[in-house]
Amino acid sequence: MNIHQLSVSFDERQDRLLLRLSTQAREEFRFWITRRMTSRLLPILEQCVVRQEASQPGVTATDPNTQQMLSELKRDAFMQQADFSTPFASQKPTLPLGSEPLLVTDAHFNLEPGGALRIQLLEKSPGVPDKSCQMNLQAALVHGLVHLVRQALVQTGWAIGQEVSAEVQSTAAEESPAPTTRYTH
């Protein structure tokens, strides 16, 4: 899947974030992310991007503080080049998961040997077959996704943005988590 655009917006009526992802093949994937899931996903995304940046070839950042600084430098460089002003284009896309967004109830993360972050988002409901979508994101896209989620959080009133930053800083000082992480809603 070659990702073309990402969009994260707050739907006040649903009280959820809507993550939209479009591909170069004109497919669009839509996901509902609840407050609870956002509060769990954002810290792990931030930890994973730090690990992604530290695992790049030629990088020798071994301690957590150096890894965090490296990630912040890379994020700042990405933010200067990123285009957040172009509106999300949805001109009659193909919707592989259907027109209703997938309600994310589970997420699996794995840092791949090539440096990509594999993310699997799942919707599990009793009596219904599971739905899922898997994507591989390079560090730049993870930085972009975290930025878009943080922008959307400003509109939510959920007050989890500062909590997340504090959690990430305290976790970065601890030992890195296992390569595969799973969160269930």
Structure description:
With 185 residues, the chain is α+β, with helices and mostly antiparallel strands. The chain has helices at 35-54, 64-81, 139-156, 161-172, and strands at 3-11, 16-23, 28-33, 102-103, 106-111, 117-125, 128-137, 180-184. The protein has a single domain, classed as Secreted effector protein pipB2 fold (2-Layer Sandwich), CATH 3.30.2450. The protein contains 4 helices and 8 strands; from the N terminus they run βββααββββααβ. The strands form 2 sheets. A 4-stranded mixed sheet has the order 1-2-3-4. Helix 1 (35-54) packs across helix 2 (64-81), helix 1 packs antiparallel against helix 3 (139-156) and helix 1 packs parallel to helix 4.
Assigned CATH architecture:
2-Layer Sandwich
Tell me the count of domains: 1
SSE topology string = EEEHHEEEEHHE
Percent strand equals 25-35%
What is the typical, i.e. mean, pLDDT? Answer: 81
The CATH top-level class label: Alpha Beta
Which residues form runs of ≥5 with pLDDT under 50? 163-179
Query: Strand arrangement, largest sheet?
Result: 1-2-3-4
The tally of strands reads: 8
